[in-house]
């Protein structure tokens, strides 16, 4: 790992120490698992849109097992974790004798870096094994390089290093709080005696109270005899400020990673109304941009950009499940889609993970009559031989008596 970086708080922040901050760990866990849980496939472009290319050699690597050592979830969890810590993530592309991609292996971002060859060509070097291993050079075509914000477009900036002062303050406050409660730096209350005590009696009473109600025994029931009284102390202004500092640091770290505070465990301002909105904001402003980084590099390095197959395929994550919402919202959306001809019954069943129906009508796309244009209605009327009804009623029989109204 990279060396420690001192901060004004006195805390050294590097990749290891930052991950010991609960909010940092929570944000990285939320993002890495969100990406790893999304289906990833290669699609073939068609005249009607696109479809999954199930027979493509890349499909199994992307959707199931990138290499013999890990499944898709473990692979993408590692990639996104490294990306969010160091600002860079690297994947080694292994090809077979025919030049087809056969495996994808993550490279440790702390011992991998881009550099320029003497002729100006971009390449990568990585250490084999541990950090003291020998360096190996890889062609740029053999490495997928995912990067966050970058000054030169080549190497991403580490969020940990860019925000080390804020993280140092958070870690210092966390350690101060642990010491405060561990050592009892702030008395929880005052123990008042009925009459004046000599120094020996005071010390004896203090030790007895700490032994029975201090440390791990805090919060127990106290039984006082005679005229002894216990008066609890309220939070001091300093303690209140400390709590506010801790809350502010959580908010800043969540902002660093674009994770709503409620997803990182802060539910102080959570309500039913803003929960769904924060989830949508997370998808739109955080998850989508992150997926765009990953998809862009995968398509650039794994999908043919020249030749006969150029532009015929593309790789993409499927975020449909993240957009579904609750069950009632799903059903309302599906009903609207079926009513307006976006979905057939079988389309909806596929999205719900149900088996399709072996009935031709289940694949029919219907449209409400009031959504059809006039030409369609006229053509349908002619086809079905629908005659216009007469505007005037038939003449009454002359023999029947007429009634005047």
Automatic annotation (TrEMBL):
Among NCBIfam families, the record links this protein to: portal_HK97
Q: Which organism is it from?
A: Granulicella mallensis
Q: Where is this region: Disordered?
A: 192-220, 384-405
The lineage is: Bacteria, Pseudomonadati, Acidobacteriota, Terriglobia, Terriglobales
Task: Give the compositionally biased regions (Basic and acidic residues).
Answer: 200-210
Q: Which InterPro entries match?
A: Phage/GTA_portal (IPR006944), Portal_HK97 (IPR006427)
Matches recorded under Gene3D superfamilies = 1.20.1270.210, 3.30.1120.70, 3.40.140.120
Task: Please report a single Pfam family linked to this protein.
Answer: Phage_portal
- This protein's name: HK97 family phage portal protein
């Amino acid at each position: 790992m990279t060396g420690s970086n001192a901060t004004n708080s006195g805390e050294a922040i590097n990749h290891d120490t930052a991950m010991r901050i609960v909010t940092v760990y929570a944000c990285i866990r939320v993002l890495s698992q969100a990406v790893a849980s999304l289906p990833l496939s290669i699609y073939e472009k068609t005249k009607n849109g696109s479809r999954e290319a199930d027979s493509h050699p890349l499909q199994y690597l992307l959707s199931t097992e990138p290499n013999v050592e890990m499944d898709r979830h473990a692979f993408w969890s590692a990639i996104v974790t490294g990306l969010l810590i160091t600002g860079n993530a690297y994947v080694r592309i292994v090809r077979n004798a025919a030049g087809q991609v056969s495996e994808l292996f993550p490279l440790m971002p702390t011992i991998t870096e881009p550099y320029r060859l003497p002729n100006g060509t971009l390449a990568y070097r990585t250490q084999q094994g541990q950090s003291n291993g020998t360096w190996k050079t890889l062609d740029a075509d053999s490495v997928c390089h995912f990067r966050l914000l970058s000054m030169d477009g080549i190497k991403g900036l580490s969020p940990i290093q860019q925000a080390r002062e804020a993280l140092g303050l958070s870690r210092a406050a966390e350690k101060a709080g642990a010491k405060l409660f561990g050592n009892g730096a702030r008395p929880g209350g005052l123990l008042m005696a009925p009459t004046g005590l000599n120094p020996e009696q005071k010390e004896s009473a203090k030790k007895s109270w700490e032994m029975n109600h201090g440390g791990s025994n805090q919060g127990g029931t106290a039984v006082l005899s005679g005229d002894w009284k216990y008066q609890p102390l309220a939070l001091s202004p300093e303690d209140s400020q400390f709590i506010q500092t801790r809350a502010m640091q959580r908010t800043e770290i969540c902002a660093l990673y674009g994770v709503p505070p409620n997803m990182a465990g802060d539910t102080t301002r959570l309500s039913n109304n803003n929960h769904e909105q924060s989830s949508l904001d997370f998808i739109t402003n955080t998850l989508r941009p992150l997926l765009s980084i990953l998809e862009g590099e995968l398509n650039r390095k794994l999908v043919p950009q020249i030749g006969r197959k150029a532009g015929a395929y593309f790789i993409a994550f499927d975020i449909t499940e993240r957009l579904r919402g609750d069950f009632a919202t799903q059903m309302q959306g599906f009903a609207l889609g079926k009513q307006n001809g976006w979905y057939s019954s079988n389309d909806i069943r596929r999205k719900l993970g149900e088996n399709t129906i072996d009935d031709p009508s289940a694949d029919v796309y219907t449209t409400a009559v009031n959504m059809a244009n006039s030409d369609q209605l006229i053509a349908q009327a002619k086809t079905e031989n629908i005659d216009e009804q007469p505007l005037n009623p038939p003449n009454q029989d002359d023999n029947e008596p007429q009634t005047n109204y």
